[in-house]
Amino acid sequence: MKSRYEAAKNVFVDSIDIDDYIELSSSVSAYKQLEHSMDKPLKMILLFGRPGTGKSILLNRLAEKLKHQKEIHYFDTPATNDKEFFHKLFKVLTKQDLPHNTEVNFSALVNFCKNLRGKREILILLDEAQMYNTGMMEKIRLISDSRAVKFVVSLHKTDDEDLIAKEHFQSRIWEVIELKNATQSDQTAYVHKKLLKKNLFEIANSIKEKDMKLIHAYTKGNFRECNKIMFTIFEICEYYDQNEPSKVNYEHIPQRIIEMAALKLGYIHV
Amino acid sequence: MYDIKPLEEEWKQYKKNKKKPYLISFIVFILSFVSIYSFLNYKTIFFPKISNLNSSENTKLKIKKNSSILLDNELSVIQVKTQEMIENIKPIVKLKVEKRIENSVPTLPVVDDIPVLEDKPKRKVVRKKLNNIKVTRKKIEKPRKKMHLNIIESSSVGAYKDVEKRFYQSHDTDDSLFLAKSYYRKGNYKKSEYWSLQTNKVNTNIEESWIIFAKSKVKLGRKNEAMRILTNYLKHSNSRAVKNLLYQLKKNK
User: Fold this and answer.
1) What does the alpha-carbon distance between residue B225 and residue A218 come to, in Å, rounded to a whole number?
2) Which of A25, A216, B5, B216 has the smallest number of Cβ neighbours within 10 A?
3) Which residue in A239, A240, A256 is closest to B11 by CB distance?
4) pLDDT in tens, B45-93
5) Which band of pLDDT confidence, cut at 50, 70 and 90, is reported for residue B127?
6) A239 to chain B: nearest residue by CA?
7) Measured between beta carbons, which residues in chain B are less than 8 angstroms from residue A255?
8) Do A259 and B8 touch (CB under 8 A)?
9) Which domains does chain B have, with CATH numbers?
């Protein structure tokens, strides 16, 4: 017999599935800001925030929403070297595959982009841009100078990288959009909406404000961490539901289970 | 989920550790409370003897107060008994006994202030009376012992000094007369002479003071002087007691 918690657990499997996108007040404002920035004559837009703040899903949603209105391309995985990146870019710009055993001539590519100015407006969304080296970033900037290609660069904001990112990008007049960790109310809405989307009303109702306070304290409002802890909570609930039903309360998730999940994920220690 | 049991154990340990600070802070709170309490009451805790002494002093005071009450009670018992007895004894004795008892009763407030001085003679008077009247002693034996204890413990010198000091401030003839009488009873005739003189200086109409003054003079070997003083006093007063005293002095001459 299937546990009621199995479906709940699967809701929180971490993915960048556009169907799982939850509109929250913070993400809506970030989306609008990004959409507005793209209409400006800006060459590059920087989207940054800590891992798990929803950068990737925001870019994904943007690409999905504007794909019929604009020439928009989402580069989800960063190229490990110049050659691979320019192969991809060549394909996007020329709409043709690069012939086998050939390499992209960068200056010729820049000239090609300059020729596209006024004719086409191409928008490229670069996810995980922190993995591009400085040289490659310089080449991206030169391409963006053609004004035919706009880049939305998504960067991880970590303690070390934050400084590098700021120094690197502040020399250029770019729009900067920062995504922050969710507030407790945003995170509560996120969890509830996710469960309700899958018609898990009773389970959503069993997660009280007090529980969300604890979860928010453990995850610090990070959506990825939130997914992880919710998954683990429901995994534990599923086990008890199937093996020791007396230890699970269907009306209220026991604090013990939340703490056990936090222990398992290393948010708290013995 | 295969690791649920170790996870449960880990959670139990986590809970234990989480409770520790609360437990420690509770213990610290209790300890600090105890230490503060003991600091504030260190005298009582670390010097119990002192407090005991104080308490014994208190009990002494209480005893003193009680003794006066006992004396009251005792006297009332004696009065009742004596009245019963007196009916069968000569009328002179009855008068004397009643008079003496009546005299001793009003002096009780003074006994409260300086219990030693006032109690001692009074007890003697009572005892004498009891001997004369042959009242059963057994019943009043116990409170009498308590009275003796009080008399021994209190410092007579200090008490006299206090009264003297008070007299110099207030010039109250009750105080000076009390001192004169007390010193006379004690046999300190020089002082009784001095204090009766002080009384007479403040108020020349106190018969008792003149009598003590004269008696003190007699005891000091100045009988003529005493007689002269009494004669002069009789010029202003018609005191029977003074007349009697003068008569006795003349007779014994």
Assistant:
1) 111
2) B5
3) A256
4) 666 554 454 545 554 545 454 545 444 555 555 555 555 555 554 444 4
5) low
6) B1
7) none
8) no
9) 60-153 (no CATH), 164-252 (1.25.40.10)
Q: What is the mean pLDDT of chain A?
A: 87
Q: Which two tokens stand for residue B208?
A: 């008792």
* B15 vs A contacts (CB less than 8 Å): 259
**A102 vs B59: CA distance, rounded Å:** 117
**Conformation bin of residue B91: beta by default, left when phi > 0, alpha when psi is -120 to 50:** alpha
CA–CA dist B17, B15 (Å, integer) = 5
Do the Cβ atoms of B143 and B67 come closer than 8 Å? yes
CATH of A25-179, one of 3.30.420.40, 3.10.310.70, 3.30.70.20, 3.40.50.300: 3.40.50.300
User: What number of residues does chain B have?
Assistant: 253
| Cβ neighbour number for residue A134 with a 10 Å cutoff | 9
pTM: 0.55
Give the helix/strand (H/E) hosting B216: helix B207-219
Give the residue from A255, A261, A199 showing the smallest Cα distance to A11: A199
DSSP secondary structure letter of residue A129: G
By Cβ distance, the residue of A235, A239, A260 closest to B11 is: A260
**Residue corresponding to tokens 């043709």:** A96
State the nearest Cα–Cα gap between A45 and chain B, in angstroms. Answer: 43
Contacts of B8 in chain A (CB under 8 A): 260
